[in-house]
Amino acid sequence: MTEFPPFRPRLPWLGGDLQTLRNYLRARPADLAAWPGRRLKLALADGSGDRLAAMLHRPEAPDGRPLAVLIHGLTGCEDSSYIRASAGHLLGRGYPVLRLNLRGAGPSGPLCRLRYHAGRSGDLRDALAGLERLAPDLFADGLLLVGYSLGANMLLKFLAEHGGDFPLRAAAAVSAPIDPKAAQLRLMAPRNAPYHRYLLARMKAETLAGAALSPAERRAVAQARSVYEFDDGFVAPAGGFADAEDYYRRCSAGRFLAAVAVPTLVVHARDDPWIPAAAYDAVDWRANPRLVPLLPAAGGHVGFHGRGASAAWHDRCIGRFFDHVLA
Description:
By secondary structure, the protein is of the alpha/beta class. Helix content is 38%, strand content 13%. The protein contains 11 helices and 8 strands. Strand 3, helix 2 and strand 4 form a beta-alpha-beta unit.
Protein backbone atom coordinates (compact mmCIF):
# COMPACT_ATOMS: atom_id res chain seq x y z
CA MET A 1 0.00 0.00 0.00
CA THR A 2 1.17 3.48 -0.82
CA GLU A 3 2.29 5.58 2.15
CA PHE A 4 0.89 9.08 1.99
CA PRO A 5 2.32 12.10 3.79
CA PRO A 6 0.09 13.57 6.50
CA PHE A 7 -1.77 16.71 5.52
CA ARG A 8 -0.62 19.81 7.42
CA PRO A 9 -2.33 23.07 6.37
CA ARG A 10 -0.16 25.86 5.05
CA LEU A 11 -0.38 29.10 7.02
CA PRO A 12 -2.48 31.20 7.00
CA TRP A 13 -4.98 28.89 5.29
CA LEU A 14 -6.36 27.21 8.39
CA GLY A 15 -9.80 25.59 8.41
CA GLY A 16 -11.99 24.24 5.65
CA ASP A 17 -13.27 27.62 4.49
CA LEU A 18 -9.86 29.22 3.99
CA GLN A 19 -8.51 26.07 2.33
CA THR A 20 -11.45 26.23 -0.10
CA LEU A 21 -11.28 29.98 -0.69
CA ARG A 22 -7.56 29.98 -1.43
CA ASN A 23 -8.38 28.54 -4.87
CA TYR A 24 -10.17 31.82 -5.59
CA LEU A 25 -8.29 34.36 -3.47
CA ARG A 26 -4.76 33.31 -4.40
CA ALA A 27 -5.26 31.45 -7.67
CA ARG A 28 -2.17 31.56 -9.84
CA PRO A 29 -2.87 29.37 -12.89
CA ALA A 30 -0.01 26.95 -13.45
CA ASP A 31 2.18 27.75 -16.43
CA LEU A 32 1.93 24.86 -18.89
CA ALA A 33 3.98 26.54 -21.62
CA ALA A 34 6.70 23.89 -21.29
CA TRP A 35 4.20 21.34 -22.61
CA PRO A 36 2.43 22.87 -25.65
CA GLY A 37 -1.17 21.74 -25.95
CA ARG A 38 -3.07 20.24 -28.86
CA ARG A 39 -6.78 20.99 -29.16
CA LEU A 40 -9.01 17.95 -29.66
CA LYS A 41 -12.76 17.76 -30.27
CA LEU A 42 -14.39 14.50 -29.25
CA ALA A 43 -17.80 13.56 -30.66
CA LEU A 44 -20.55 12.20 -28.41
CA ALA A 45 -22.64 9.24 -29.58
CA ASP A 46 -26.15 10.27 -28.49
CA GLY A 47 -27.16 11.88 -31.78
CA SER A 48 -27.05 15.42 -30.37
CA GLY A 49 -24.08 16.47 -32.49
CA ASP A 50 -22.38 17.68 -29.31
CA ARG A 51 -18.60 17.46 -29.01
CA LEU A 52 -16.30 17.81 -26.02
CA ALA A 53 -13.25 20.03 -26.32
CA ALA A 54 -10.06 18.82 -24.69
CA MET A 55 -6.43 19.93 -24.48
CA LEU A 56 -3.71 17.31 -24.84
CA HIS A 57 -0.20 17.76 -23.45
CA ARG A 58 2.74 15.40 -23.76
CA PRO A 59 5.87 15.39 -21.58
CA GLU A 60 9.16 16.37 -23.15
CA ALA A 61 10.58 12.87 -22.89
CA PRO A 62 7.76 10.27 -22.98
CA ASP A 63 8.70 7.12 -21.08
CA GLY A 64 5.68 4.88 -21.54
CA ARG A 65 3.51 6.28 -18.77
CA PRO A 66 -0.29 6.14 -19.19
CA LEU A 67 -2.34 9.14 -20.27
CA ALA A 68 -3.95 11.00 -17.33
CA VAL A 69 -7.40 12.44 -18.11
CA LEU A 70 -8.49 15.29 -15.80
CA ILE A 71 -12.21 16.02 -15.26
CA HIS A 72 -13.25 19.34 -13.70
CA GLY A 73 -16.06 20.11 -11.29
CA LEU A 74 -19.18 22.28 -11.20
CA THR A 75 -18.80 25.55 -13.19
CA GLY A 76 -15.21 24.56 -13.95
CA CYS A 77 -13.30 23.89 -17.16
CA GLU A 78 -9.85 22.98 -18.45
CA ASP A 79 -8.48 26.27 -17.12
CA SER A 80 -9.71 25.93 -13.54
CA SER A 81 -6.76 26.56 -11.26
CA TYR A 82 -6.86 23.07 -9.72
CA ILE A 83 -6.97 21.43 -13.17
CA ARG A 84 -3.98 23.38 -14.42
CA ALA A 85 -2.08 22.69 -11.19
CA SER A 86 -2.72 18.95 -11.42
CA ALA A 87 -1.78 18.95 -15.09
CA GLY A 88 1.52 20.65 -14.36
CA HIS A 89 2.29 18.29 -11.49
CA LEU A 90 1.59 15.13 -13.51
CA LEU A 91 3.40 16.40 -16.61
CA GLY A 92 6.38 17.13 -14.42
CA ARG A 93 6.31 13.48 -13.32
CA GLY A 94 6.35 12.32 -16.94
CA TYR A 95 2.64 11.64 -17.53
CA PRO A 96 0.89 12.82 -20.69
CA VAL A 97 -2.25 14.75 -19.70
CA LEU A 98 -5.65 15.46 -21.28
CA ARG A 99 -7.67 18.34 -19.77
CA LEU A 100 -11.28 17.48 -20.63
CA ASN A 101 -14.14 20.00 -20.74
CA LEU A 102 -17.52 18.51 -19.88
CA ARG A 103 -20.56 19.03 -22.07
CA GLY A 104 -21.25 22.76 -22.38
CA ALA A 105 -18.34 23.81 -20.14
CA GLY A 106 -15.51 26.14 -21.14
CA PRO A 107 -14.36 25.54 -24.73
CA SER A 108 -17.01 22.79 -25.06
CA GLY A 109 -19.72 25.46 -24.72
CA PRO A 110 -19.98 26.48 -28.40
CA LEU A 111 -19.83 22.81 -29.44
CA CYS A 112 -22.80 21.60 -27.37
CA ARG A 113 -26.56 21.98 -27.18
CA LEU A 114 -26.90 19.98 -23.96
CA ARG A 115 -25.30 20.40 -20.52
CA TYR A 116 -23.22 18.26 -18.18
CA HIS A 117 -24.53 17.04 -14.85
CA ALA A 118 -23.32 14.79 -12.01
CA GLY A 119 -24.45 11.58 -13.66
CA ARG A 120 -23.46 11.96 -17.33
CA SER A 121 -20.98 9.09 -17.19
CA GLY A 122 -21.92 8.19 -20.75
CA ASP A 123 -20.29 11.41 -21.92
CA LEU A 124 -16.97 10.28 -20.48
CA ARG A 125 -17.39 6.89 -22.12
CA ASP A 126 -18.06 8.52 -25.51
CA ALA A 127 -15.20 10.97 -25.13
CA LEU A 128 -12.71 8.22 -24.36
CA ALA A 129 -14.01 6.11 -27.24
CA GLY A 130 -13.64 9.10 -29.56
CA LEU A 131 -10.14 9.74 -28.26
CA GLU A 132 -9.16 6.15 -28.96
CA ARG A 133 -10.38 6.45 -32.56
CA LEU A 134 -8.62 9.78 -33.02
CA ALA A 135 -5.29 8.90 -31.39
CA PRO A 136 -5.05 5.17 -30.60
CA ASP A 137 -1.38 5.53 -29.64
CA LEU A 138 -2.50 7.38 -26.50
CA PHE A 139 -4.07 4.14 -25.23
CA ALA A 140 -0.98 1.99 -25.72
CA ASP A 141 0.13 2.36 -22.11
CA GLY A 142 -3.33 2.54 -20.56
CA LEU A 143 -5.32 5.33 -18.96
CA LEU A 144 -5.47 7.14 -15.63
CA LEU A 145 -8.53 9.18 -14.69
CA VAL A 146 -8.77 11.99 -12.15
CA GLY A 147 -12.03 13.74 -11.24
CA TYR A 148 -12.74 16.72 -9.00
CA SER A 149 -15.94 17.57 -7.12
CA LEU A 150 -18.96 16.99 -9.43
CA GLY A 151 -16.57 15.53 -12.01
CA ALA A 152 -15.32 13.09 -9.37
CA ASN A 153 -18.87 11.87 -8.71
CA MET A 154 -19.30 11.34 -12.46
CA LEU A 155 -15.97 9.52 -12.59
CA LEU A 156 -16.85 7.06 -9.81
CA LYS A 157 -20.17 6.27 -11.51
CA PHE A 158 -18.33 5.82 -14.82
CA LEU A 159 -15.81 3.41 -13.26
CA ALA A 160 -18.63 1.18 -12.04
CA GLU A 161 -20.60 1.31 -15.30
CA HIS A 162 -17.94 1.45 -18.03
CA GLY A 163 -14.56 0.85 -16.38
CA GLY A 164 -14.16 -2.51 -18.08
CA ASP A 165 -14.52 -0.99 -21.55
CA PHE A 166 -11.14 0.78 -21.48
CA PRO A 167 -7.53 -0.03 -20.50
CA LEU A 168 -7.78 1.77 -17.16
CA ARG A 169 -4.81 1.39 -14.82
CA ALA A 170 -5.96 3.57 -11.91
CA ALA A 171 -8.15 6.53 -10.96
CA ALA A 172 -8.51 9.21 -8.31
CA ALA A 173 -11.54 11.15 -7.06
CA VAL A 174 -11.10 14.40 -5.12
CA SER A 175 -13.89 15.99 -3.04
CA ALA A 176 -16.68 14.03 -4.72
CA PRO A 177 -20.29 14.70 -3.60
CA ILE A 178 -21.02 10.97 -3.38
CA ASP A 179 -24.39 11.79 -1.76
CA PRO A 180 -25.66 14.70 -3.91
CA LYS A 181 -28.75 15.24 -1.76
CA ALA A 182 -26.63 15.68 1.36
CA ALA A 183 -24.35 18.06 -0.54
CA GLN A 184 -27.36 20.11 -1.70
CA LEU A 185 -28.64 20.42 1.85
CA ARG A 186 -25.20 21.38 3.16
CA LEU A 187 -24.66 23.99 0.45
CA MET A 188 -28.04 25.58 1.25
CA ALA A 189 -27.39 25.70 5.00
CA PRO A 190 -27.36 29.25 6.42
CA ARG A 191 -23.63 29.18 7.18
CA ASN A 192 -22.95 28.51 3.48
CA ALA A 193 -25.13 31.32 2.10
CA PRO A 194 -22.18 33.17 0.45
CA TYR A 195 -21.02 29.97 -1.27
CA HIS A 196 -24.57 29.21 -2.36
CA ARG A 197 -25.12 32.64 -3.90
CA TYR A 198 -21.78 32.49 -5.69
CA LEU A 199 -22.25 29.00 -7.13
CA LEU A 200 -25.85 29.58 -8.16
CA ALA A 201 -24.91 32.78 -9.99
CA ARG A 202 -22.11 30.96 -11.83
CA MET A 203 -24.34 28.01 -12.71
CA LYS A 204 -26.99 30.31 -14.13
CA ALA A 205 -24.53 32.47 -16.07
CA GLU A 206 -22.74 29.43 -17.51
CA THR A 207 -26.02 27.80 -18.58
CA LEU A 208 -27.61 30.90 -20.08
CA ALA A 209 -24.46 31.78 -22.00
CA GLY A 210 -23.61 28.44 -23.54
CA ALA A 211 -26.61 26.23 -24.04
CA ALA A 212 -29.33 26.16 -26.71
CA LEU A 213 -32.26 26.60 -24.33
CA SER A 214 -35.96 26.63 -25.00
CA PRO A 215 -37.90 29.62 -23.66
CA ALA A 216 -39.24 27.43 -20.84
CA GLU A 217 -35.76 26.25 -19.90
CA ARG A 218 -34.41 29.78 -19.99
CA ARG A 219 -37.16 30.89 -17.62
CA ALA A 220 -36.51 27.98 -15.26
CA VAL A 221 -32.80 28.87 -15.09
CA ALA A 222 -33.35 32.60 -14.70
CA GLN A 223 -36.04 32.21 -12.01
CA ALA A 224 -34.22 29.60 -9.89
CA ARG A 225 -33.68 31.00 -6.39
CA SER A 226 -31.61 28.09 -5.12
CA VAL A 227 -29.44 25.23 -6.32
CA TYR A 228 -32.36 22.93 -5.58
CA GLU A 229 -34.71 24.95 -7.79
CA PHE A 230 -32.06 25.01 -10.53
CA ASP A 231 -31.72 21.21 -10.36
CA ASP A 232 -35.47 20.64 -10.07
CA GLY A 233 -36.54 23.11 -12.76
CA PHE A 234 -33.74 22.68 -15.29
CA VAL A 235 -31.18 19.92 -14.69
CA ALA A 236 -33.67 17.14 -13.87
CA PRO A 237 -36.11 17.62 -16.79
CA ALA A 238 -33.28 18.31 -19.26
CA GLY A 239 -31.53 15.12 -18.13
CA GLY A 240 -34.60 12.87 -18.19
CA PHE A 241 -35.15 12.71 -14.43
CA ALA A 242 -38.53 12.99 -12.73
CA ASP A 243 -37.36 15.79 -10.41
CA ALA A 244 -34.36 16.90 -8.37
CA GLU A 245 -34.80 14.09 -5.85
CA ASP A 246 -34.75 11.51 -8.63
CA TYR A 247 -31.66 13.18 -10.13
CA TYR A 248 -29.80 13.14 -6.81
CA ARG A 249 -30.70 9.52 -6.09
CA ARG A 250 -29.87 8.06 -9.50
CA CYS A 251 -26.62 9.99 -9.89
CA SER A 252 -25.22 9.37 -6.41
CA ALA A 253 -21.78 7.81 -6.74
CA GLY A 254 -22.25 6.20 -3.34
CA ARG A 255 -24.63 3.72 -4.97
CA PHE A 256 -21.90 2.60 -7.39
CA LEU A 257 -18.79 2.27 -5.20
CA ALA A 258 -19.13 -1.48 -4.66
CA ALA A 259 -18.88 -2.07 -8.41
CA VAL A 260 -15.66 -0.09 -8.98
CA ALA A 261 -13.04 -2.60 -10.21
CA VAL A 262 -10.17 -0.17 -10.89
CA PRO A 263 -7.62 0.81 -8.20
CA THR A 264 -9.05 4.16 -7.12
CA LEU A 265 -7.84 6.73 -4.61
CA VAL A 266 -10.74 8.56 -2.94
CA VAL A 267 -9.68 11.85 -1.33
CA HIS A 268 -11.99 13.93 0.85
CA ALA A 269 -11.46 16.37 3.73
CA ARG A 270 -13.65 16.05 6.80
CA ASP A 271 -13.83 19.84 7.06
CA ASP A 272 -15.07 20.29 3.48
CA PRO A 273 -17.65 23.09 3.91
CA TRP A 274 -19.75 21.88 0.94
CA ILE A 275 -19.81 18.09 1.24
CA PRO A 276 -20.58 16.32 4.54
CA ALA A 277 -18.09 13.68 5.66
CA ALA A 278 -21.00 11.53 6.90
CA ALA A 279 -21.49 10.19 3.37
CA TYR A 280 -17.93 8.83 3.44
CA ASP A 281 -18.29 7.47 6.97
CA ALA A 282 -21.30 5.46 5.80
CA VAL A 283 -19.24 3.56 3.20
CA ASP A 284 -17.93 0.11 4.09
CA TRP A 285 -14.51 0.64 2.54
CA ARG A 286 -13.36 -2.88 3.40
CA ALA A 287 -16.04 -4.31 1.11
CA ASN A 288 -14.15 -3.17 -2.00
CA PRO A 289 -10.35 -3.47 -1.72
CA ARG A 290 -9.94 -1.56 -4.99
CA LEU A 291 -10.98 1.64 -3.22
CA VAL A 292 -8.34 3.45 -1.18
CA PRO A 293 -9.97 6.11 1.07
CA LEU A 294 -7.79 9.04 2.09
CA LEU A 295 -9.90 11.14 4.48
CA PRO A 296 -7.85 13.72 6.38
CA ALA A 297 -9.39 15.94 9.04
CA ALA A 298 -8.58 19.11 7.09
CA GLY A 299 -8.20 20.32 3.51
CA GLY A 300 -11.44 22.03 2.51
CA HIS A 301 -13.08 21.51 -0.86
CA VAL A 302 -10.46 20.68 -3.53
CA GLY A 303 -8.08 22.64 -1.34
CA PHE A 304 -5.35 20.65 0.43
CA HIS A 305 -2.86 23.52 0.42
CA GLY A 306 -0.20 22.00 2.64
CA ARG A 307 3.16 22.86 4.08
CA GLY A 308 6.49 21.87 2.64
CA ALA A 309 5.72 21.78 -1.09
CA SER A 310 4.37 24.04 -3.80
CA ALA A 311 2.14 21.28 -5.19
CA ALA A 312 -1.21 20.68 -3.50
CA TRP A 313 -1.23 17.72 -1.12
CA HIS A 314 -3.85 15.84 -3.15
CA ASP A 315 -1.72 16.15 -6.29
CA ARG A 316 1.29 14.71 -4.48
CA CYS A 317 -0.80 11.84 -3.11
CA ILE A 318 -2.29 11.10 -6.54
CA GLY A 319 1.18 11.04 -8.08
CA ARG A 320 2.40 8.60 -5.42
CA PHE A 321 -0.67 6.42 -5.84
CA PHE A 322 -0.30 6.23 -9.61
CA ASP A 323 3.41 5.46 -9.34
CA HIS A 324 2.66 2.68 -6.84
CA VAL A 325 -0.08 1.09 -8.94
CA LEU A 326 2.02 1.19 -12.10
CA ALA A 327 5.03 -0.29 -10.31
